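Collaborator request, handled under Task 6.
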Amino acid sequence: MSQTSAIKAAYWRGFRNGLPFLLVIAPFGLLFGVAATNAGMDLAQVMGFSVMVIAGAAQFTALQLMGDHAPVVLILAASLAVNLRMAMYSAALTPHLGKSKGWHKALVAYFMVDQVYALSANEYETRPEMSRAEKLAYYAGACTPVCPNWYLATLAGALVGAAIPPEFALDFAVPITFLAMIGPALRSLAHVAAALVSIVGALVLSFLPSGVGLMIAALAAMVTGAQVELWVARRKGALL
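Structure tokens returned to the collaborator:
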């Protein structure tokens, strides 16, 4: 297969893998559009929020604090804390995409959302033979059904607003999205251990300010996963 064909194949593979997330991106975006409109934002503000931030969890956090009339500094700090996981995502993808052109990295950073990161990290780990161009193409393919439809769903929610019946229960999208991302990644003892520590940590530390407990739990999970991997490697070495 030529390099051009491989790049095209990587793009369409990413596109196909990203399609199932439409089932949760659409209601999640609708929910934000409705919530933001009900909070008093006009259409330009709602769409500006989604286009500039493009981070559902941080947007909902900011929206809730704005509704509580929290200080701007607190709103920004809480949103940043919720989105700090993107720094971990970036660090994880640096070995694969870190040597790309500056504008490529800028686009990767802008479109870094949970779904695209999860798909790309899994793909890069499963197919280590991929070239950097193929990895970028896969990333772009995964973004195509996810990110533009976040904008469209937000727009639809903002236009329709409170007319969406409450029995639609659009808030199911948030947990379903994360379950769909995490499930396929639990392929080893280290992954399972990290997931369990993150769950327990997030629950135990839920009394902390928004985002702080989550970050502590995430760091503890990373350390746990690394230690379990070292333990498994040592055990394998001892058995050889």
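The cover message to the collaborator said: "The mean pLDDT is 83. DSSP finds twelve helices and no strands in the chain. Please let us know whether this matches your experimental observations."
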